[in-house]
Write a structure and sequence with these properties.
Blueprint: E1 2-8, H1 21-30, E2 34-39, E3 44-49, H2 53-68, E4 74-78, H3 79-88, E5 101-106, H4 112-121, E6 127-131, E7 134-138, H5 147-153, E8 161-165, H6 166-178
Antiparallel strand pairs: 1-3, 1-4, 2-3, 5-7, 5-8, 6-7
Helix pairs in contact: 3-6
């Protein structure tokens, strides 16, 4: 069975799209997924399955509709894909604070024009780099007032996307490795 990181977009943020992680774990186990673990309350799940990542995403989206009444998009990466994301780390030499360093996980790569628009709004030492289906973004002044962070979080990217800070990415990989 493959270990997979299942990333729910926009749950438990500012009181919206409330999802209880214990209830989600139970629902995923009832749906046949194994070794289900969650990390914090923002929709981070690691589980085992024989299904493809695409099938797991669709099944979890359906479960969210059935159990929680939520139409929430899901992005899935295998343990090996997650390890490659960490290993690549294109901004690691400049990103010194894991809370201000984000990886946006995309359903599919962004068009070059979208990347140029993201680069154009980067300010105050911000950096952005797309590698495959991930966009790495360094926000040295924080995310609160960052136009780049705002654009990466918006639905205007043209693809399903969800971001996690570097600390969370590392924890998800650790979870995937711990129960492998």
């Amino acid at each position: 069975m493959a270990r997979l990181a299942v990333l729910l977009r926009g749950v438990n943020l500012a009181g919206r799209n409330r999802v209880s992680m214990p209830v989600l774990r139970e629902g995923l186990e009832d749906a046949g997924f194994a070794q289900v673990a969650t990390y914090v309350q923002s929709g981070n799940v690691v589980l085992s399955s024989r299904k493809s990542a695409k099938r797991v995403a669709a099944d979890v989206e359906q479960l969210l509709v059935e159990r929680f009444g939520l139409d929430v998009r899901v992005v899935v990466r295998t343990r090996d894909e997650l390890a490659a994301i960490v290993e690549l780390d294109p901004l690691g030499k400049v990103a010194t604070d894991p809370k201000r360093y984000q990886v946006t996980f995309l359903e599919s790569p962004l068009d070059a024009a979208v990347i140029r628009k993201l680069e154009a709004v980067a300010r105050d030492g911000e950096r952005v780099a797309q590698v495959g289906r991930e966009v790495y973004a360094w926000h040295p002044e924080g995310l609160a007032r960052s136009k780049l962070a705002e654009r990466l979080a918006a639905k205007g990217l043209g693809v399903t996307a969800t971001a996690r800070n570097w600390r969370t990415v590392m924890q998800l990989l650790e979870l995937a490795d711990a129960t492998e």
